[in-house]
Design a protein that fits this description.
The chain is built from nine helices and four strands. It has a single domain, classed as Up-down Bundle (Four Helix Bundle (Hemerythrin (Met), subunit A)), CATH 1.20.120.
């Protein structure tokens, strides 16, 4: 019984690894320009990677919940959870942003290849995620609420981008084809993960409305936005969560 939470954590890691495989799968086509053949990687977004990030998020939610229910929390489980999260919500989002950024560059006129130096900023996301998770494990102030953006939230946000591009209901996909917007997203996400900003935890320890008002507001935004905005609801929920955390910051106390 005590290994069940660890099995769920490993399922999280497995989903992250599957997502990486789908990100890496990139069929190539041969294009001719001025009599020269160019091998061009298909820049189409990797939709299945997004699905596996969502599955990883589900397993990440339940491993801690099951550990508390069975009262089998352990230091090993805590470290294993962070290692899995680095992959599923750090490495995978970085690779998705890498592909989206490359796709944005490939849409530029007369571009058949792009330097990896231009794409390297996407890899800052896994670096900052790893730093945030290491800091989280040692920070006793984050026992009830968060300081900085949780990595699963970042992972789910980035995972929504390919799906937004696929189901472009509100004609916003072209913004993800702008390299400067992508660079800005990378910078903001990296900052939020390590910033000393109190963030709301969705754990309900008491049922008093006043104490849980920010949580109820987040839930209300989720319920309203998903049916209306579909996949675009994810960035809306993410932005609302950040704004509510700034306007109604939770109390941060050392454990």
């Amino acid at each position: 019984m005590k290994q069940i939470p660890n099995i769920l954590t490993l399922a999280n890691l497995f989903c992250g690894c599957m997502a990486i495989i789908f990100v890496l799968y990139a069929p190539e086509t041969l294009t001719e320009l001025n009599g020269v053949d160019y091998s061009v990687t298909n820049p189409a977004p990797v939709y299945w990677a997004s699905v596996f990030v969502v599955l990883a998020g589900v397993f990440d939610l339940f491993d801690g919940m099951v550990a508390r229910m069975l009262k089998v929390s352990s230091p090993v489980g805590k470290e294993l959870d962070s290692l899995a999260d680095v992959v599923s919500f750090g490495v995978v989002p970085g690779m998705i942003l890498f592909r989206i950024l490359r796709s944005a560059y490939m849409q530029q006129p007369n571009i058949f290849d792009v330097s990896y130096v231009n794409l390297a900023p996407a890899l800052l996301v896994p670096c900052f995620a790893a730093y945030r998770l290491a800091k989280f494990n040692l920070d006793t102030r984050q026992s009830e609420n968060f300081i900085g953006m949780p990595t699963p939230a970042v992972g789910l946000l980035v995972a929504s981008f390919p799906l937004i591009m696929l189901y472009d209901q509100y004609n916003v996909a072209h913004y993800l084809g702008n390299i400067w917007i992508i660079y800005a997203i990378i910078a903001v996400l990296c900052y939020l993960m390590v910033a000393e900003i109190p963030m709301i935890s969705m754990k309900f320890k008491k049922l008093k409305a006043k104490e849980n008002l920010p949580r109820f507001l987040v839930i209300a935004i989720v319920i309203v936005s998903i049916p209306v905005f579909k996949f675009l609801a994810v960035p809306i929920i993410f932005a609302s969560y950040v704004i509510l955390s700034l306007v109604m910051p939770p109390k941060i106390e050392a454990a």
